[in-house]
Amino acid sequence: MEFRDLRQWIDAVRGLGELREVRGAHWDLEMGTIVDLYQRRMGLPALLFDEIGDYPAGWRILANALTSRSRIALTLGLPADTDARGIVMAWRKHARQYPTVPCREVSDGPVNEVVETGDEVDILRFPSPRWHAKDGGRYIGTGCLVIQRDPDSTWVNVGVYRVQVHDGRRTGLYISPGKHGRLIMEKYWKQGRPCPVAVSLGHDPLAFFVAGLEIPHGVSELDVVGGLRGDPFEVVRSEFTGLPVPATGEAVLEGEIHPGEMLDEGPFGEWLGYYAGGARPASVIRVNAVRRRRDPIVMGNLPAKPPNDDTYYRGYLRSAAIWSELEGAGIPGVAMVWCHEAGGSRMFTTIALRQMYAGHAKQAGLVAAQCHAGAYANRWTVVVDDDIDPTDADEVVWAMCSRVDPREDVDVLTGGWSTPLDPMSYPPDRRNLNARLVVNACRPFGREFPEVCTASPEMRAEIAARWRDRLPEIAD
Predict the structure, then answer these.
(1) Torsions phi, psi of 217, nearest 5?
(2) What is the pLDDT of residues 328-349, one digit of tens each?
(3) What is the mean pLDDT of the chain?
(4) Rounded to an integer, what distance in angstroms lies between the CA atom of residue 278 and that of residue 267?
(5) DSSP labels, 128-168
(6) SS3 of 70, please?
(7) β-bridge mates for residue 49, sequence order
(8) CA-CA 20 to 30 A from 239: which of 160, 271, 363, 413?
């Protein structure tokens, strides 16, 4: 199934029985707490908030959207019952070289039902939540798309960066150092120009998926969405910024980011579960225009202590991307890659490997810890044998306990690419580097090693099939 907008996706999720409609929750902490209670356990329904305190009915917020495997599969156009390995394998087809189809520019779309400019603009009309108790303000942009064009080319970049409401005409925009959106913004500033920007607040979740990934420099995420669908992503050209915005979007804020204009932004509870970034000056979007549907739905994506709605889905996609980059680097024998949700899909990567030569496991670990898809804010990279299921944390910890010689099998790397959102990043004045560990949790290559004490897979399946009627809880 393919979706052209957020509403089609919501209807499909409702059809799966995985949508809970919530009426009457307040934007100030109540919504955020409800979402956090739901996302503590993966697989609970998506939440569609309506009749939000202080706001008219019909101005809604979708949250907890991507915390079930079936909804992730649905978004990617896969059967809803696809398992974890199936999702990773399906995404691997694209992760080495993402297919692209250029956007299709159309003259109009639902996003243009209402267009407001100048004094008509009031961002506070949107129900923007204060998600966490110690947040520095209300955040309208957590499940958003931030759209910019490189000033020296036709490249349109789309990223997922947080957007805080300052007042009715200004928002904060935080982008970590090294991210494409930050590099583009700084290019404009070096030229003495403001950076045009558009922020889409509600859209097809596939666009949100892609915008949160490490798409190569110079490749537009909107074109990748079209390539994944096999059909162009439809955009309208903004008469205010010249940027392409989703024609079937829910709402778009448009404006400029002026050089040197900063306001304190944050703190904000982020994807690793801490208020690590604190409150500090960040760039400001002067919002000059808003285009929206009459009854817009804002897509919220709540970061918090993992697992959460901001990290769970990315684990599948990042696992596939790292796997493809390992193979692209010439690493053979990879059986599975998994980015664990407890590490925010970035900080704990496990590679299951069929060892083929001495040094193979260490080679795989070092490449995975520093390749583009795996490098940002990584902390642990663990390589296990292919008899270990990397999606099973108990099996991974068992391998780390029983197959690691700390004298030989743990490497500490310093000076890795990180972010102030990592509470252990350094140096204190910049907080953009970290240290990380690469752990070889494989059996020593070429050395006799004790056999594992467990029933064979064939025996387990046979006995489970024979006894399942009388022992329904039995697992094979």
Answers:
(1) -55, 135
(2) 999 999 999 999 988 989 999 9
(3) 94
(4) 4
(5) --B-STT-SSEEEESS-EEEEE-TTSS-EEEE--EEEE-SS
(6) helix
(7) 22, 61
(8) 160
